[in-house]
UniProtKB/TrEMBL annotation:
Residues 27-241 form the Aminoglycoside phosphotransferase domain. This is Phosphotransferase enzyme family protein. It holds the Pfam family APH.
Length: 341
């Protein structure tokens, strides 16, 4: 029988890793995994326990991508293999991976500082330069339409609105969500124009989830990029924008715009072959996929009707950031065009 408890992990560490002295404690982080930290074998470790049904082949592919990036000089968390060389220990009782513990924290509640954005730009530029050589896919230049599907989004928004109309007992958040979704429907012709006006974009293997929670800092220095996803080619502008237009950071106003310029400059310093179009296009790319995203509003009808407070905060921040960016779109792009090359 599969068990994810701490006792089964400690026992497995003794047998599979040769660490009979392991001492762990639960971390209140992670949604798809149960996480622990502690000491074993004379080192501090991080243990990620996978839940039943997890596709372990997908997890291994993501870990291998992290190792590929690390070999190219990107700061990541180092994977510790078991005594038999496995990336993931897998038994009837438990399945987990072990990592060197990284001393660092994600950006604060108010988003990234200007120094952090500069550091992120350098790390992301190096990451993309390294992953451009990944054998899973060659770099190509593709139409920007790969960013999102406007017609599909319109259909999904209409379905959510129809479902919400049959939930008359909703709270203030549901009322707000309904107004937001109607606003986005009205915005779709403008999104179609923006998408059509974007230049072709570079597509290559990327991290896959390069968002603020997955970048750990130590004294404004990037300590590690974590939680890679399996190799998949996507538009470079999409990944740059996920961190460059982090909603909490956008809401810092002028500080965000200054930081965005520093991020772009750092990116170019580490990735001389980067196409300028990808950097300039990142803000419009973010507008397109954010406006067409139905997350987390879909969970109002497919899951619990009352979303957790952090998810509600994220939804509100993202919508407010979208309005801010739309209002300052030309100005922000001028900032990016003025970045030294």
């Amino acid at each position: 029988m599969f068990v994810s408890g701490i006792e089964s992990v400690v026992k497995a560490l003794a047998v599979a890793y040769g660490w009979p002295d392991a001492a762990l404690q639960r971390l209140l982080s992670g949604t798809a995994t149960v996480n622990y930290t502690g000491r074993a074998g004379g080192r501090q470790i991080f243990v990620k326990v996978y839940q039943p049904g997890t596709d372990l082949d997908t997890e291994r592919a993501a870990m291998e991508l992290s190792q590929f990036a690390a070999a190219g000089g990107v700061p990541t968390a180092a994977v510790i293999r078991s005594l038999d060389g496995s990336l993931i220990h897998h038994s009837d009782q438990t399945r987990f991976s072990v990592w060197e513990f990284v001393r660092g924290e994600p950006a604060g509640e108010s988003g990234l500082t200007e120094r952090q954005m500069a550091a992120v730009g350098r790390s992301l530029g190096r990451l993309h330069r390294v992953l451009a050589e990944h054998p899973a896919a060659q770099c190509t230049v593709e139409p920007a339409s790969a960013l999102c599907d406007v017609d599909r989004s319109i259909g999904k928004i209409n379905k959510i609105l129809a479902a919400l109309s049959h939930k008359p007992d909703g709270d203030d958040f549901q009322t707000w969500a309904t107004d937001v979704l109607r606003w986005r429907l009205a915005l779709m012709p403008r999104i179609t124009e923006i998408l059509a006006g974007l230049p072709p974009l570079t597509c290559q293997i990327l991290h896959g989830d390069f968002a603020a929670p997955n970048v750990l800092f130590h004294h404004d220095r990037v300590a590690a990029v974590i939680d890679f996803r399996p190799p998949r080619a996507r538009p470079v502008a999409w990944e740059i924008s996920r961190i460059g237009c982090d909603p909490r950071t956008v809401l810092r106003g002028e500080q965000w715009q200054r930081g965005l310029r520093l991020l772009a400059a750092g990116y170019r310093d580490e990735h001389n072959d980067a196409r300028p179009d990808d950097l300039v296009a990142m803000v419009r790319a973010w507008v397109c996929y954010s406006a067409t995203s139905i997350y987390p509003f879909d969970e109002l009808v497919t899951g619990e009707s009352l979303l957790a407070d952090p998810l509600r905060t994220y939804a509100r921040d993202r919508q407010q950031a979208l309005v801010v960016v739309m209002n300052d779109l030309a100005k922000v792009e001028d900032v990016l065009r003025a970045t030294p090359r």
